[in-house]
Amino acid sequence: MFGFIHESIRQLMIRTYGEAFWAKVLERAGFEAGKENIINHYYSDQDTYTLVDAVSVILKVTREQVWEMYGCFLIQYTMETGWDDLIRSMSPNLKGFLDNLDSLHYFIDHVVYKANLRGPSFRCEDNPDGTITLHYYTGRPGLYPIVKGVLREAAKRVFKLDVSMSITGRTQRSVQMATGERIEEHVIFLIKTQNTDQSNEDALGTALVQHTNNYKIRLTHMDFVSTFPYHMVVDQDCKIVQVGKEL
Questions:
Q1: Structural domain containing residue 187
Q2: pLDDT at 209 over 50
Q3: Do the Cβ atoms of 233 and 240 come closer than 8 Å?
Q4: What is the pLDDT at residue 106?
Q5: Is 244 in the same domain as 136?
Q6: pTM score of the predicted model
Q7: Average pLDDT of 41-59?
Q8: CA-CA-CA-CA torsion for 55, 158, 167, 103, nearest 10 degrees?
Q9: For burial by CB atoms within 10 Å, which of 39, 61, 72, 81 has the most?
Q10: Which residues belong to any copy of the Heme NO-binding domain (predicted)?
């Protein structure tokens, strides 16, 4: 994983538990101090898992609890380090924010770091009761608690919402890649609002916009062919029935 992940883990642990605690983590994980958080260095996934496992053992909590704690901190740290405006401008509601997560990861991978970091992928579904079903796909099994932490904290910080996230499904499959076999994980979350007078639809941004057909296009035929001078319209028999004025 990219060094930014290691540095943000380090920041979380030092801010929460102090420098001495982090020194114990490094000792248990077998890292030399100062070599564990090089921002532009790409660490193996196993290096990252070793760090998190060391934190888990010393704190006497599960690895999943550490990842979720990290997810909550990650959105805070990301916004502190210059990404605040971008994150807040992604969408006016949580549903739109989730829909744009793939684009955000693509931007980070290919534009900011110019690397192929194997980021996760997300898909949203609107439910009839206004809740959201979120599909999370990743080639790194076991990291789904990060998603819970990130989204709950993002909902609070960006949209002033308190949301609950429950896992309704989790599957894994083996995929043959050019570089060998890898495990892909698919986790399904159900997202609901909590402690709000708004409905799920209004709070999460899943409310349907009602469209009516009682409108009139105020554009004449001549205006249309002038506005779109190079257009062409054909009928179901592929006969040309209209062209722009320049054709």
A1: 86-213
A2: no
A3: yes
A4: 85
A5: no
A6: 0.77
A7: 94
A8: -90
A9: 72
A10: 3-166
Same domain, yes or no, for 184 and 143? Answer: yes
**Quick one: angle between helices 63-78 and 3-17, nearest 10?**
100
3-state secondary structure 157-183: HHHCCEEEEEEEEEEEEEEEECCEEEE
Tell me how far apart the alpha carbons of residues 38 and 3 are, in angstroms, rounded to a whole number. Answer: 5
Number of domains in the chain: 3
Residues 6+ apart with CB under 8 A from 52: 9, 63, 66, 67, 70
Question: From residue 136, how far is each of 73, 122, 155, 163, 165 by CA, in Å?
Answer: 20, 5, 17, 17, 13
Nearest one of 109, 119, 132 to 189, comparing CA atoms: 132
Question: How far is it, in rounded angstroms, from Cα 74 to Cα 69?
Answer: 9
Evaluate whether 106 touches 173 at the Cβ level (below 8 Å): no
pLDDT exceeds cutoff 70 at 54: yes
Question: Is residue 33 domain-shared with residue 91, that is, in the same domain?
Answer: no
Return the pLDDT at 97. 94
Q: What is the pLDDT of residues 88-137, one digit of tens each?
A: 999 999 999 999 999 988 888 777 777 666 789 999 999 998 899 999 99
Residue 170 · residue 186 · CB < 8 Å: yes
Q: Are 165 and 154 in contact (CB under 8 A)?
A: no
In which order are the strands placed within the sheet that holds 132-138? 121-126, 132-138, 180-194, 162-177
One domain for residues 90 and 148? yes
Whether residues 154 and 235 fall in one domain? no
